[in-house]
Please model this.
Amino acid sequence: MDFLSADSLPWLSETQQRLRDARLTQRLPHSSLLLSKPGLGAEYLANWMAALALCEAAEGVERPCGACASCALLRSDSHPDYHLVKIEDDAKQIKVDQVRELIDSLTTKSYRGGYKVAVIEGAEALNANGANAFLKTLEEPSANTMLIMIARPTHRLPATIASRCVRVPLRPPAHELAIAWLEAQGNPGHNWEAALALAGGAPLLAAELGAAGTGSGRGGDGGIGALEQDMQDSLRALAAGAVDVTVLADAWARSNLPLRITWLENWITRRVYSHLAAQDSAQTAERVRLPAALLKPKIRALFELLDAARELRRLSATSMNQQLALEALLLGGRSALAN
Model:
């Protein structure tokens, strides 16, 4: 675990300083809910927060120090007081057994006599039983325990869970800062503007998309610009009924599927804003809240397609049949895609 990576992400520095100040006054939050779209470094921040609590540096030394015994254990992923819970391979939810195992670990005495820290990635994937089991831990925390949950801004966490956490929203940095950071990562001359637009303003995701967009395959050789053109052409053909859904799904599944899903999410969100005559926004992970009177069939169809795209992206890392899922998404969304 390279928890010091968070220090290289300048848009996290303000949040880090607030947490350092809280530690100095012994007011580190017991339960935090990091609300973040992909690509803003929420996982890095969560690991840094864990290191801040667990670091054993002497007073006067900035924490996390990266050099003490506790930091060394964290870096080797062997700290006995650090616990990570996330969706297991091929699963759709965080299981109640995972939560119960975590609770048991937190009720025992700290091995090193300090904090015990638990990080739950993708907390919106907690099933109902898991959320209920975790509620008592939030309501009756043991001493020197830090719970960190990571979820999307559109999380589906029960209000009983979310309301007991300190909310820490992460937002994309200013455009100029994001571009400067991306250019500092190397690959001079890369079209970071296009990558950042595709990523909805999230620099880490833009870096990933920029690297993936230069790969091979349909939509890859020409980079992100070629992917953009290919997606636009594909959707026009789909809306006009001029393409076989099976053939299109197969092509998408074989070439840069994560990029295509991200592109589709952003495209749908822009389309929603366009239909509402609203200002365009890079905050594509945020839920658009509409008055009931505006939930016309066209808007409803777009939201249903957006939900399907998000679900496909969430499940794309599992053993699910991607082509069948893509076919279902494209068939179900044909009316929404039509002009």
Residues 99 and 134 are 7 Å apart (CA to CA). The beta strands are 31-35, 82-85, 116-120, 145-151, 166-169. The two ends are 48 Å apart (CA to CA). The chain has 15 helices and five strands.
